[in-house]
Amino acid sequence: MSSFLTCLRQVGCIGVLTASSIGIAHAAAAPLELREAIQAALAHNPDLTNFQFELRAHDAQRQQADLRPAPELGFALENFGGSGEVKALHGSEATLSLSQVIELGGKRKARLAVTDAGRDHLVIARQAAQLDVLAEVTRRFIAVAELQERRELARRAVALAEETQRSAMQRVAAARSPHVEQDRAAVALEHARLDARAVDGRLVAARRTLAAMWGAPDAQLDDSATEAVHADLFHLPVVDDFPVLLQRLEQNPDFLRYASAERLREAELRLASTTRRADISLGAGIRRLQQGGDMALVASFSIPLFSGRRADAFVAEAAARREAVGADRDAALIKARAQLYALYRELQEAAATVTSLDTAILPRMDEVLEETRYAFERGRYGYLDLVDAQREYLEMQRERIAAGTQVQLLVTEIERLTNAPLANPN
């Protein structure tokens, strides 16, 4: 089973939200590959499609930030409705003016820098969300693969129980064993069949859970024939030394997001600093004097006072938020390093378990089971000896499946944390 990051590189999915839709309901003879599940999740996962709307909103925000202050059209009527010479409109003055705020200090450029940094931050967040979704796809894919292995083992257990029942019946018929052994064998067989049916039900549920990652409707799922997945739980990846993994840690989008957040906070700080320089407002218009019918030009100029002092609080807030990002990143990096080391040690232990079971324990268990069965059929061992041998054999097989599953899950978690595949691509 290829790692999910290797599959991402094969299909070129990092940084995009759409992919060509694949036929999820393809022929049952072709098991589902991890690459196909990843393509489907990228194309249809609801958690990822929301980023399209967020990006469109950021594009609209940039257009807003690029707008200059709108000119203002004003009209004023003075000296009317009084008494004597200014009663009614006799002494009124009407002024029509046009004014414009002139931004100083590079405010428009600073606003655009904030929106651009915000969009970059969203792109990094999208990549992190993609890795989260695809890591979850891989976990569910591994869960299906594990249950497929457990189903095969459950069927093997049923076959062993049937074989034991036949041998017990022959021994009872030959008066070499009491009838109770035949009854106990029948009970063990029924119990094995119940376990097999339970695994089948869990497998169907796991397949549906996997298909939910790309929003497959229930109408497309068949409880009895939901497609299988193609995976090798017992493939042991070639793992780099821990210092190498540690170097890759900071390339994770989770930490790149801190870098983009620092750029965003820096842009916000520059924007806050531009408010130290006040904008000015210029206006011009024409005035009509009602009493004499004369016309005159008017001009205006205004600037807010104490802008620098008022901006200090905004600058201080932006500076504090920028510094907080660095502190958060350092704290997250310390936790991630500890987590990576724990995962790395667990992976070594799980891989060692798989290797020991495959090379030393299970081959001997096969021999023990075969020898015990042979001796049981010839009356040298009793029923309990055979059952114990079968139980130990099945338990070792379950332990192998659990260890192999743990290896694949740990590989997924380390790849998610380091943003780099562990498995040798060759």
Describe the structure.
This protein is α+β, with helices and mostly antiparallel strands. About 65% of the residues lie in helices and about 10% in strands. It contains 9 helices and 4 strands. The protein has helices at about 5-10, 35-45, 45-65, 105-175, 180-210, 240-250, 255-275, 305-375, 385-420; strands at about 70-80, 95-100, 280-290, 295-300. A 4-stranded antiparallel beta sheet has the order 1-2-3-4, with no helix packed on it. A hairpin with a 4-residue loop joins strand 3 and strand 4 (about 295-300). Helix 3 (about 45-65) packs antiparallel against helix 4 (about 105-175). The two termini are about 15 Å apart. The model is unreliable at about 10-30 (pLDDT under 50).
Proportion of helical residues: 55-70%
- Low-confidence segments, given as residue ranges, are 11-28
Terminal CA distance reads 13 Å
Radius of gyration: 37 Å
% residues in beta strands:
5-15%
Rough outline:
elongated
Main-sheet strand order equals 1-2-3-4
Task: Estimate the mean pLDDT confidence.
Answer: 83
Characterize the largest beta sheet: strand count, sense, and whether it forms a barrel. 4 strands, antiparallel
Number of strands: 4
Helix and strand pattern:
HHHEEHHHHEEHH
Task: Count the DSSP helices.
Answer: 9
Kindly name the structural category: alpha+beta
